[in-house]
Amino acid sequence: MSNYTTLVTMLEEFTGISGSNYSVRQSRAINWAQRAINSVRWDFLFAEGTGFNTAQSDKQYTLKSDFLLPYKFYLNNGTSTNELIQGIFDDIVTNPPSSEGVPKYFCLGGTDTYPTVYIGCPTADAAYAVTYGYYKKLSTLSGTGESDISIIWGDDPIILGAAYKFWQYVELPQKADLVFPQFWQAMKEMEENVPFIGKSWTETHPLPQG
């Protein structure tokens, strides 16, 4: 676990490049690496969302501001709690069933800074309690405060990922190609040591052949 200033120093030591002329590209590279790592559903990023109630005829609801990836949504219809099924926008919002009732589907909406969920199909005919689990979005790293500390396991994944992207930003693709396997291996080691669900990063980003 390191703060942003420490990560910049480590990146400079790894690449041998420093100076204010590179600060923007260093920032972009470090946060690119964090977002790449953040794309996996790690257990340490799991959180319970604040529950909310549907409203009659409403479809869109606000989620926690740090929501990134969904786990599951549940709806209590008054007698039982059931998992909502992930659907598509057109069926839930654009062309919903004509009759309202107990919703069975959800789809995600909103933006990175204002995440929302659409619940319907059918559109709610009353107030139903909704609960959900999700995976958190890591804060952008930019300073020296406690809020700017990366909670990623170890420093190798984020530094090697940042180096890979930094070499691309300074237009040295050969060096980027050389460090990518090191980044991949660091991610593999993280996957072997930190619990997660779903697909791994190394599965979705295989090493180049040849």
Describe the overall structure.
The protein is an alpha+beta fold and 210 residues long. The chain folds into two domains: 2-42 and 140-196, no CATH class; 44-136, no CATH class. It has helices at residues 4-15, 23-38, 89-94, 156-169, 173-193, 201-204, and strands at 2-3, 41-42, 46-48, 52-53, 60-62, 67-76, 81-83, 85-86, 105-110, 115-120, 129-136, 149-150, 196-197. Helix 1 packs across helix 4 and helix 2 packs across helix 4.
Number of E-type strands: 13
Which regions contain 5 or more consecutive residues with pLDDT less than 50? none
Give the helix level as a range of percent: 25-40%
What spatial form do the alpha-carbon principal axes imply? Answer: elongated
Figure out the total of helices.
6
How far from one another are the termini?
35 Å
Question: Order of SSEs, N→C?
Answer: EHHEEEEEEEHEEEEHHEH
- Largest sheet at a glance? 5 strands, antiparallel
Radius of gyration: 21 Å
The tally of structural domains comes to 2
Which structural class fits the helix and strand makeup? Answer: alpha+beta
Mean pLDDT: 92
What fraction of the residues are assigned to beta strands by DSSP?
Answer: 15-25%
Question: In terms of topology, how is this protein built?
Answer:
Blueprint: E1 2-3, H1 4-15, H2 23-38, E2 41-42, E3 46-48, E4 52-53, E5 60-62, E6 67-76, E7 81-83, E8 85-86, H3 89-94, E9 105-110, E10 115-120, E11 129-136, E12 149-150, H4 156-169, H5 173-193, E13 196-197, H6 201-204
Helix pairs in contact: 1-4, 2-4, 4-5
